[in-house]
Specification:
elongated; disordered C terminus; 22% strand; five-stranded antiparallel β-sheet; alpha+beta; 5 domains; 22 strands; Beta-Lactamase
Amino acid sequence: MKPTATRAGTPEELRRYDLLLAGFDLLDQAIAVFDATPKLVTWNKAMLRLLDFPESLVRVGTPFEEFVRFNVQRGEYSGGALNPAEVERLVTERMAAVRAFQPHQAERTRPNGQVLSIRGVPIPNLGFVTLWTDITEQRRYERLIERQNAELENRVRARTAELEAAKTRLDNLAGQLTRSEERMRRILDTIPAMIAYVDAGERYRFANRGYANWFGLDQQSIVGKSILEVVGPDAYAQVRPQLEQAYTGEQVSYEYSRINAAGQQVHARSAVVPEASEAGGVQGFFVLSIDITEQKAGQAVLIQAQKMEAVGQLTGGLAHDFNNLLTIITGNLAALKDKLPAHQGFEDYLDPALSAARRGTELIRRLLTFSRQQPLAPCPVEVGALVHDMTPLLARSLTERISMQLELPTEKLYALVDPHQLENALLNLAINARDAMPDGGSLGISVARRHVSPSLALLVEVPAGDYVQFDVSDSGSGIAPEILSRVFEPFFTTKSFGTGSGLGLSMVYGFIRQSGGNIRILSTPGKGTNVRFILPMTDARPAPPAPVAPAPPPAANGSRLVLLVEDEPEVRKVIRLQLTELGYPVVEAANGLEARSMLEAVEDIAILVSDTVMPGLGGRELAAFARQLRPALPILLITGYATGPTPAGTPDVPTLRKPFDGAALAAALATLTYPADPESPPP
């Protein structure tokens, strides 16, 4: 900070003023104080750095109008050059607002892309204080979490060095300081940072309003209290080793957490700068702190998302191999069941095996839902009506001792979502709530409109815009903090063996994220749990059901030669048997390159059935080649993967997902478009 004029004061008053001013020059915010004229009275170093004002302009007595005119002439408010008349108009408008001496807060984007938060606070009968805060980095907050931590630590070290250098300078300038302590306190209280001074006996001698409010105290009550009394025994145990290090004269920075009055865990990052006494010891500490609770929450969300993404990629890759195995198992078991005589007791062995294979198929589907790779069928859904129609099903899933309350919107809200998956998600959440209330309680489901701002969108990892918000709340036992971070992990469950797969919440998480939304859980042990998720809102309305056209009578299967392409021999064998059972003659190819040669050489091939992923030439590339060679050739792709793109230039190629039985294969072949048989009569 820069002094105004020389004013007498006691050494203690001047020393304390030195200490307070030192804190100002450590701040990232630019601060300037103007008198009632208005003219510049004092400022900190950040004003020059943050606003790019020339040093010749920043001096005691500079009228505020000169700063406005300087900014107008260099295009700060317009983004380009202005003529003299426009310059005078802008200066007049801004000075009229300044002379009103009204509190104000605004944001301004500079031509260089820097975003500033500007806050003006009048000092009654004296002037006003203006604070500029660079919030550019906040707009990229989520993407720069790790870098921000490193930069903050470097900044603290730099500020500490500046503090030592500033103290030496302040000793030489003590006679020039004229500011009153009360005015300095007023300025400090407007700063969003938390600032305090603690003596060598670990008792607070000063705390600004932000620091006191963070601990749920007022400034008067915190002065004189010990650190232990203010932060509590748990937080003090975290802070004590850092203080012991600071007693040696070393500047330290650290993070700690505490439970606030609302029962929530909050986090802070602090820098402690020891103040040396004339005798050579430490007579006190400057404490500079910032609240990093939201930053910690963002880090936790990012880590959880990365972990879930890694597991999702693993499950998505394993699904292909499992689906191929299940295709072989189910296909052979189904064929064996059809071949064996009835009433011979074979069903006692075959039916459980087929049932187990189908359960394996369902498990793979759940894993794909978790990994966000399960094919969805999103459409506009009126969510209020969906939840209302589910009420009987939800009620049957609860016990008689659990009451259910619905809070549905009066307006019709439409979400772009797969309605069946949404119903499954709500049912899963209701069942989890029921299990958390064995002795009864209440279940609440509410639906409302929610707008996500750009700043919030970065935190929750969704595009800014309008969403439909669902809240599923219960009055159950709640979830312990050490468990809460793991509830979305697949196969993680606190239920006894055999009562839960651990996939319920994982499926919900995967479905919500795949649908373009986000989900979070808030829970207090002993009080209950709230699950909140959002889904994209849409202005579209559900399309009326299309009339079902009568299918033309198909030609005899025996006249259609099928080219079957599959690189797994056992899978190819099963599918070949299914096709022959349906009456199709079949020729086989073990890979895409072999199939391409057969398409070029055999003109009688009437249907192409191909796997998607094969060495050399994949099924999708093969389908594109086939359409170039024979545009009317019916093509059916089969895959053990969850998703895949449509072949280029072949938007009408359907995909049948493994495992499947003969009936599903027949149904898929029936959907293909076949060229008209010139020898058959028209239908």
